[in-house]
Amino acid sequence: NGNAGFQQVLERLESDPVCQRLSLKSFLILPFQRITRLKLLLQNILKRTRPGSEEEVQATQAYDALEKLIKDCNENVQRMKSTEELIYLSQKIEFECKIFPLISQSRRLVKRGELTALDFNTLSPKWKVTTRPIYLHLFNDCLLLSRPKE
């Protein structure tokens, strides 16, 4: 998004009839879609092969290898999504001191959400309750509390 030249070239390529007006994202997704179709094809082949035959052994090996590949692909996609979330958070969160590196290969965002903090003012004659939003970011290795800039 930050590179105007790349955006222009991408728009020109996506509008080209050869690309059939498909976006770059659709071309990146196609290999994953083909892998899942191959899994369905191998399932059908396994249903139609004779039990105990050499074809069944080979089809089972191919199916197992394909299943492992799909699992690895899904794990890598999840890892990339998690890294993208960490990058997005690191751009939005401003630390008072830089002692906490938010982006890490092993760190994953597990859950995040907004809560309301209640502040009791005990100095006034009447107890005064004020509220302000705070955000919780639960990672696999720590809990981060943040508040919006005022």
UniProtKB/TrEMBL annotation:
<dbReference type="InterPro" id="IPR047271">
    <property type="entry name" value="Ephexin-like"/>
</dbReference>
<dbReference type="InterPro" id="IPR000219">
    <property type="entry name" value="DH_dom"/>
</dbReference>
<dbReference type="GO" id="GO:0005737">
    <property type="term" value="C:cytoplasm"/>
</dbReference>
<dbReference type="Pfam" id="PF00621">
    <property type="entry name" value="RhoGEF"/>
</dbReference>
<dbReference type="InterPro" id="IPR011993">
    <property type="entry name" value="PH-like_dom_sf"/>
</dbReference>
<dbReference type="GO" id="GO:0035556">
    <property type="term" value="P:intracellular signal transduction"/>
</dbReference>
<dbReference type="InterPro" id="IPR001331">
    <property type="entry name" value="GDS_CDC24_CS"/>
</dbReference>
<protein>
    <submittedName>
        <fullName>ARHG5 factor</fullName>
    </submittedName>
</protein>
<dbReference type="GO" id="GO:0005085">
    <property type="term" value="F:guanyl-nucleotide exchange factor activity"/>
</dbReference>
<feature type="domain" description="DH">
    <location>
        <begin position="1"/>
        <end position="76"/>
    </location>
</feature>
<dbReference type="InterPro" id="IPR035899">
    <property type="entry name" value="DBL_dom_sf"/>
</dbReference>
<dbReference type="GO" id="GO:0005634">
    <property type="term" value="C:nucleus"/>
</dbReference>
